[in-house]
Amino acid sequence: MRLINKNKGTPFADVGAYVCELTDELDALAKTVSDASVNRHYILADEFCKRNKCLAIRIPGCTLGGIHYNHDNIVTGIEINTDCMNKIYLLNAKELVNKYIGDKIEFAK
To answer: What tens digit of pLDDT does each residue of 19-30 get?
Structure first.
């Protein structure tokens, strides 16, 4: 799982917001009822998240879940808030995220 800084080259580059294949797939699953850029998923990987080995899965204004990983940066589990998921996602979102368990998290330079 290669995380790419979504704000690279902007004044917000140090916020810790990343995109990856997982966020792209969640975007594709999300119901498009408004401007797609407004609800774009991202991974929050600030220092607090990294210290606690749990990266937040977010859309603006809402944390949808978390990516748990070990000291080798291997994904050990992914949680999705099913209450929020029922409103935003198609039915197979939970199965989608499980395929990333076991992947190594890498931060793009």
So the answer is: 999 999 888 877
